[in-house]
Amino acid sequence: QVHPYAQIALGILTSAAQLLISQANLDKAVCDLLDAVRDVYEFLTEDETIKNIDAMRDTLAKIARTISDSAQFINNYSATKSFWKRTAKNIFSETQTVIDGYVKTLDGLMQQYRDRAVQDIHINTYRILEDLNLDGMAYAGGAGLNTTKKCLDGTRKEILQEIINWINDPDVGAPRILWLHGQAGRGKSAIAHTIASWFKDVGGFGSCFCFARDRQDEHREEKILTTIARDLADRDPSFRRALADAVSRDHSLKTTPDVMRQWQQLILEPLSKVDGEIVGNVVVVIDALDESGSVKSRKHILSLLSSTAAARLPSNFRILLTSRPLRDINHVLGATQHVKATSLDDISPVSAEQDIRLYVSSELAELAEIGDTEIQKIAHKSSGLFEWARLACEFIEPNKPGRTVMERYNEIMSHGSGGGTLLDIMYRTILADTVPKDKTTLARFCSVMQQIMSTSTPLRLDTLNEMRGYFPPEADRFDVVIILEFMAPLLSGIADRCSVVRPLHASFYDFLLDPSRSGDYFVGAPSMHGVLAFASLHTLCNDLKFNICGLESSYSGNSEVVDLQERISKNISENLSYSCQYWGHHLQRTGFDSALATLVEAVIGCEKLIFWLEALSLLSGLGHVTSALASTITWLQSGFEDTLALAQDGIKFLHNFGSVISHSTPHLYISALPFTPSATMLSRKLMPKFSCIVELSVGGLKEWPVAQLTLPGHTGWVRSVGFSPDGKRIVSGSDDRTVRVWDAERGVQIGGPLQGHT
């Protein structure tokens, strides 16, 4: 009966021991490490050690992590030796360096445990990644673990214990998926991040993937399994080899948005090859699936989670999934046998109230006016909603002049409770305290929240202000701080100006979008796209320039410029970066406007078009070009023929030279522009602007080649070809008895050939 965190560590230690025992032919070179590992297990079984497990659980976690790494090294030693041999390294000295590091760390941790001391012992993790190329695999940045969301220690004991028991259940028939659901504010994400953090700390094998409502434009649902596969590969060498083998046979797997293919070829197949070689349980946390977007965005994810393949995952594989019980999610997961459904709404009110009392006591500990009675009343009023309790603590804190702590406490306690409306009441209370209801202030509040909700990705406060400086209505060119300054209880990035501004809880967006709930503070659906398009295009006009990052040479690829990220940070502001990537997104969502069309012409109709491509190449954002220019072509009306022709040329320019430009930005000017067909609008209008670049004296094309892409693969006559309705895919049928699907923009095959017809 020990803390769940310690239970996870003990589980890792047990699995590592079983893996080592099963090694029939251990290499003599690793015997010293095995002896050190044996000493650790003997130490862990001593009575004195067992007695202090709870008190020393952090040290125990570090021991588990080091033992897990050691077991992986021993298990993969043969493959590691082969790699060292191929790379002409001294196998003996490399082995000794790794073993000495592990032995030294284990000795230090055991001594720390004996002394009951807590010291910061650095744990060296030796990752022998071999020559396995996973570069370019789609990865959802910022979707991982956030330790600031963890539960306060000592809270949520019952549900955390239940989840740990499910993870450690040795029954091969145990459900592979646990769906934790409940209404907004129950603390689902805190529990998910606590489990993910515990497993990471003890060296467990897994991944944490979070959806977020304000990141829906990133289409994280298309990267979910490529991201999880990369995380698993970074943790286990045998899985990494299996994954690298899969993508080496089909490079399109690295970027495919097809989650069913990702599931089959990046998760199931590699797992089948490493079954029995992984230390401990594999724990994958998927948080806030309900925030993925529309029902369509998660349809395939739900389909694979409810499939028989999910039921047959290895017996040590677990998926912890959290969401609100939305109708589509409940319909699929609620009826699936291998999914264990647990509702936080069913947690004992007494248990939830006790946890919230601990949390409130911790948050308000320094306020002398708030005693046990007040803490008990706050906990009781929360009705089990952790988010309400957090907001209540934020409201009571004396961070504004005019009222005492007890006056603020009495205000939140005076509002009637109403179950699901508690959060709404708290939101209205905080807004009433922050945003006066006069006409000017409410209009400004609505304007700022519209801006935050309309951007395609969250932005910092200074960037929101910089963008606002270009808003066409002069009344909107105010400092957003006058509205946001006291909204830290509701939004991140206010107190900490270095992080992005976003709601601390997704339910705040729901509140602002529903007039029956928000009343005077109703903001409505995002509708500021025209203004944001105007501001973004103004930014491009003013800030784009030739060789913006001052690259000195074309002899290096972008990846070889050592300080490239530093140059980008210095020369491309967050506002310019956002404007380059998303102006087309906003343009597409607004009606035609002549003033806006003039701005489009000012960017696309001159050399700024090339400077824009340069910036996107540096930002690894050339994927935005085709959609932005295609939006321009459909949006512009007659009278802008030259701009339309340049937009069309821009798409063909990218198709022909995109790979060159993305590899080395200077070759936009050195290689791509000189070879642009001479009769095109792009060449005629823009080449004279660049007088110092190479000119072709002989040869060269006059028009874009009819054949823009070659799709190699078929070995027989091609008898039928078709485009998908959106023009992004091509399908072809051939006498070689295959049907193949192609990416029309990149010219690569999507998946393997479809075989079966005779």
From TrEMBL:
Q: Does the keyword Amino-acid biosynthesis apply?
A: no
Asked whether the keyword Manganese is assigned, the reply is: no
Repeat (WD) positions are 711-743
Domain NACHT positions: 176-325
Instruction: Give the UniProt keywords, A-Z.
Output: Repeat, WD repeat
Signal peptide feature range = none
Name under which the protein is recorded: NACHT domain-containing protein
User: What broad taxonomic lineage does this protein's source fall under?
Assistant: Eukaryota, Fungi, Dikarya, Basidiomycota, Agaricomycotina
